[in-house]
Amino acid sequence: MPLLEGWGSYTSLSPSKLKTAGKIRVFFTLSGEHPTLPAAEVKALLEAEEVEVKEFEARRFLARMLISQDDCSRILDRASMVTGCYHELLACRAEVEEIAKEVGGVDWSTLKGKSFAVRVERKGGCCPHLRSAELERLIGKVVKTQVPEARVCLKAPEVLVKGLVVDQSFYLGLSLAEVRRGVFDERRPRRRPFFHPSALEPKLARLFVNLARAKRGDLLFDPFAGTGSILMEAALIGCSPVGLDIDLRMVEGTKANLRRYAPHAIGALRGDARHPPILKVDCVVTDPPYGRTSSTRGEDTSTLIENFLNVAADLLPHGRYMCLATPSWLDLAEAALKAGFKVVEEHEIRVHRSLTRRVTVFRRC
Length: 365
Hints:
Rossmann fold, seven-stranded mixed sheet, 17 strands
């Protein structure tokens, strides 16, 4: 697997028994920072990238599947809540005896002459009777017994052996890629040329783009562009994003931010979301103003967003998606249905005590 921008890479070892018609069994580790969003993002990316997988399974901290290595790269290159991808060697109950037995049954000969390290993580507070350090020593001992020529190297191993304890199960794999910490921090709102307290964090903006099943080359529209967070992330994955905002100061600020991080983006225009100067788009992704740190120019939030639903229905082709963030008290289900949308999924994110954000994915019927 090629080295991805923002990712670390390790030697890929592919035991033949794990291959199925060009596919290998992998597990993606997920951030788990939200109960449902990380897994939803992976599912959306598989659809957006038109990736065919088999035996798909997703939970809060883990997604498993049969997939090609090239397709793994495409998912990793876009995801915001995936922390790593591993070529699965085994899966068993999270009991020391069973883990020891299964690890002993793995053919470790491909590690001959290579340096390696073993790292084990427990997720979600499960299986407190298991100790990561003890499992790492157990696995390392088995590897060294089978392959004395393999060298332990904790700082910069050629091969990383990854163990994951989650939901009473244990998974073991070889690292294909791991996320570089801070890859989204470089574009945090306060580091941009133009800052506003309403700005969306880049990780969340990337998530929204992915949930909308945006494809490379898509014309992506953000009718409430703000400081350009969504436009930046869309441009960085290969979309052609265009934004709109009624506030000229925001438009100029968005342009400054895009010049820094995504100079190839189409940009932003001043305009009213209810009367956009555009006829057709491929997807819509937006985080409209809620009237707190961002202005609705005196318009009621509910009326503003409901009016835009009708506009979005005219812009979007049938079968394409819109990802919309709103305050949780705003129920758009009925208005969306009348406008010609079907609700595909909903997730709630607590922002602070007085605000919970509802993230809704709509499909144009």
